[in-house]
User: Fold these one by one.
Assistant:
Number 1:
Amino acid sequence: MKAIKILLVLSLFLSTGFNQKLSFAQNELSAVDIIAKSRLAFYYAGDDMRARVLMEIINKDGQKRLRELTMLRKNYEEGGNQKYFMYFHKPVDVKDTTFMVYKYPDKDDDRWLFIPAINLVKQIAANDKYSSFVGSDFTYEDVSGRKPEEDSHTLLRKEKLGEKSCFVIESIPEEPSEYIKRISWIDETNFLPLKEEFYDKQNELYRKFEAQELKDINGILTITKRVMKNIKTGHHTKVTLQEVEYNLGMEDNMFSERYLRRPPLEWIR
Amino acid sequence: MDKIKILLLIIASLIFIPMANASELSLHGFLQTNYSVRVNDDNPQGAKQGNLILGEERAQIRASFYPQKSKIGIFVKSDFYHDWVEENLAFDFREGYFDLAEDKFGLRVGRQIYTWGLGDLLFINDVFPKDWEAFYSGRPLEYLKIGVDSLKLDIYSNIISAEAVVMPNFQPDDLSSVGRFHFFDPYPNIPNRELEKPDSAFEKFGNMEYALRLYRYIGDFDVSAYAYKGFFRSRGMKADNFNSPSTISNFYPELAVYGLSAQRSALGGVMSAEYGYYDSLDDRSGKDSGINNSQSRFLIGYQKAFPEDFTVGVQYYSELMHQYSQYKDNLPSAFAKIKQLHQYITLRLTKLFKYQTLKLSLFTFYSPDEEDFLITPEVSYNFTDNLLGIIGMNIFTGAEDNTTFGQHKKDSDVYVTVRYSF
């Protein structure tokens, strides 16, 4: 993958002449290209990925609920189909529950839930993509991504967010959506989204995403701490990714009924 | 059996306690209170505590030990409870098994809970024992399923996978018991009945129960085929003369079931279909009124999720009796007459609020031929990650007193559960 990216940049560099700076090549990127690259960097990093995900769900009074899960993800094509497997460690009343998603960019997900107390594997109807993921401030779409074609994108400006140079992009959904406008601050160098603002139907800011910690994991820059905050209610969710690993060579059969019922222990610990 | 239970508990504690800090050990459970009160003051004969159908405090311990880099493991789940209705203290050894996981197969030996098939509270190829009394009295759903002493072999392959189960100790369904519920009895004047349970297969090998499930994807369809050989889990009846009996006994007739199921995403939701042929081995001719006739059972289900955490599920289910003319000709006058096609329509609505901490749900059974309903509205709330409260109702109504839900129409109840998980 890296080699292709280097070649791409190199060819752009060559085609625009030796005197031009690299940043010029990036200037040529359209808003939709930036969003597409950002989606790949954020949701499709590596061929597969494993992480322990800690979620702190905090209400306006500061009362905390915790979700802790191991997530496995495998990509089938860049920007295309993916499979997810999640094993819940916490809270204790859902411990050992597993959840599997086959994600298709062009149609509804297939989802399965395993309920250990009655040893039941159940295919469940895909939720609305704007419904909450496990009771957090993140929606299913926030967790698994959105196709660039679903919005029209405009590069508003370039600005620094702290030390980092960012593209600032406005995205307007083509079809009625939960929000009418999304503004994203995307790092110019690695295309990770560092901040996102969501505006509701009154055109008021109601939800804000922030990347708080980035780590280099085997050459793949990864957002390891992120927060989604509901500005109107103060309710927010902090997510920490631990023990992140990429390119583990996960096999396809990992994402099957067998492992829903008997989670692969060597992977979920 | 009790000796085996005690032995298992001792083995489990010997393994667990010295290793209490090891990461492979998991020790969890809950403390729970669960009450259910009949809303109507017309209590059944034998009611021990008036309107109180269920009143208990319960502790559950779940312990598992799966050593790292090992293929084996052990799991134990046991309850200890105090029952206000029977005024006793008791153990309920719910599950306990040894596990072996190999690359191409898995083996699980001990008491286990199984759930097969695609129905939501309607069971065709799920031939495993159920506790309907627990369900009707408003205990949490997991108590509908009873663990079975069994050996399960899983076989995994790319062509087809299989679950094969052998069960040596027959375990019947738990039906509504005397004193807790009203129920229809065709012969109320003959209260003393012997109950003949199949001997364990360790004593009589022919009593071994076998259940098999084969499954794979065919295109986008998740397809399973099932077979079972064993016994009906509901009672059959023997009498010297069904029209004016002087002695009656109950037993569990032999049964075989063959079935299929398929499921896939469709129409913006999930569609399921299931079929089962119930072969009543002791009464293939359909002449014996004390034994259920052979049947075909069908199910079609559809569930769909809507925005803002709202989910709808609907099912159509039917039982078609095969030797219906024999059944009619031999039906004693005291028995309730079942239609040749007995049907249910179910509806499930679920809506979540407040970041999924508050759940409102409704489940209804309706039988158009028996003209009866069971309606279960429920509210549950997670006060914290550990503390859950549930309040709900089971509303039984029906035109007659001798139908599945109609017989319990004086037993509509309100139930409350509070559970602290640790």
Note: Residues 56 and 83 of chain B are 5 Å apart (CA to CA).
Number 2:
Amino acid sequence: MSTIDKTATVPAPRENSDHNGPLLEVKDLHVEFHTRDGVAKAVNGVNYSVDAGETLAVLGESGSGKSVTAQAIMGILDMPPGKIPQGEILFRGEDMLKMSDEERRKIRGRKIAMIFQDALSSLNPVLSVGYQLGEMFRVHHGMSKKDAKVKAIELMDKVKIPAAKARVSDYPHQFSGGMRQRIMIAMALALEPDLIIADEPTTALDVTVQAQVMDLLAELQREYNMGLILITHDLGVVADVADKIAVMYAGRIVEQAPVHELYARPAHPYTRGLLDSIPRLDQKGQELYAIKGLPPNLLKVPSGCAFNPRCPKATDLCRTEIPALVPVTEQDGADLPGRKSACHFWKETIHG
Amino acid sequence: MGRYVVRRLLQMIPVFLGTTLLIFLMVHSLPGDPVLAMFGDKGADPATLAAKRHELGLDKPLWQQYFFYMRDMLLHLDFGTQIRNGLPVTDVLGDAFPITLQLATLAFAIELVFGITLGVIGGLRAGRLADNAILIFTLLIISIPVFVLGFIIKMVFAFNLGWIQPNVSTEPQWGELLAPAIVLGCLSLAYVARLTRTSMAENLRADYMRTAVAKGLPRRRVIGVHLMRNSMIPVITFLGTDIGALMGGAIVTESIFNIKGVGGVIAESISRREGSTLVGLVTILVIVYLVTSLLIDLLYAVLDPRIRYA
């Protein structure tokens, strides 16, 4: 695993704000979907925070609630059927869930922007990319069509799209997958937001392009000192760019840790399972480990720890009591800053 | 693009020949005799009939009649004359077409404005009360035949309430044509509403709509620019073919309200076995239809950049 530059060490706060504390703080967030078959509890009390210039990776398999949390932060959940029964989303200390629609709209795109997974379907097929990029400036800054186009070309240059000037009037389907994702990034970056949420930005791309896109994202993040929430299920992507990781399972965070410590010593059996299922060159020819079973049905989450039916170490305690997310310490009781685990047996998992 | 237009125009030639031949054969296979019909119930002696037939060229074999007809049409732009009163078909059409155009414009405006409005309302509130009310309304209209709807409107508004004249005058004002235009536009209005509604409701869930919201665009812009541009594409196709159909005149509606439009002339020509008038009219209408559909296809590329013409 390569070492990374700690993006948090880059100085220069970007805006004068009275608020000292994390840029974004999610507190005890719950999201549920009321469907015909019952209430699906997609997010059950998530807590995390991101500082300016910091990258938080949210890791988890499909249906673990990582995207839903992001959509709740953006305010783009479909409500109904979605509902946020409790929780707070503090942006610069202000609870966004209590804001009016208009206030939230002004934050979207300008302060918090989002990069979506599939750039082809996420870009409007009948509008030119120049129009879609320029729209940000026209709507939020009231720029003229002509000025917005100049800005759009600048943005396309910024994300290294060749011949930006010639391609500004092209449509999304005329670009390659990697270029499209660059356009998505340019669009999120347009108004230099404080926070970017990237929802599996590289999933639809091939491996070489993945690396290019991630490098670009990391570079721009450093340049603008933005906070970044990177949602992914790709452990390889995370290792290179993230500062800290939150692992989600069945709508809960099961482990939180600085990136390298998590890889070195996981404190939750689920994280260990994820790490063991990465193919490794030194274990060529051996059978690859896989976590047995299926992700839980969100309509009927197992009692106790949601991971217990698939956990190799589950005991009766795990089937009855939900483990809290508790700080993890060294064997001698010394603090491990930023580390938390939601397992009854974290001690055995990390030290054993 | 240019090559595409040329190819489409060339494709019109076989379509044009085929439709005229078909109409020609169909008219001549109808029972009845236009020359006999000229003299009414009294009839005439066989010599006069034969002389008249010879004068009109009706005694020649069918293929010759078709050949001469086409030759006159293509070389001299002569679409033939009406047998009954000797008027050139172009003059007959020249009188009838403006009225049909007026009626078609009004009907088209009604279906465009109300159809899309209802569709947008239904699409944005899919599954709720307004959507269901519109669904019932449109289904009702689709299931009522035009002649029933026409008669109901005529009965209620002309005879019972006396708001409108039962028959439209020969030089109709816009106001007079409102009731027939509603009858004519109603069916398409319902289709436009259903089509718009479905298209909107479907695109509302598209990923790019989520992106548009995430960009912090106001709702008006999200709906008006991002949703509408995508949702209108299938609706435009339907409206395009409908323009062609409306130009062809509305036989039933025009006869209910006694409008002297293209539909009325066609109905009259069929009942009098006026082959040449009918073929002339239909030929001109086929050209109108082909040109409008070409224009719509070209408009398509403007609306949806993914469509390429080669």
Note: Chain A touches chain B at residues 74, 76, 105-110, 113-114, 116, 118, 121-128, 135-136, 139-140, 171, 173, 187 (CB under 8 Å).
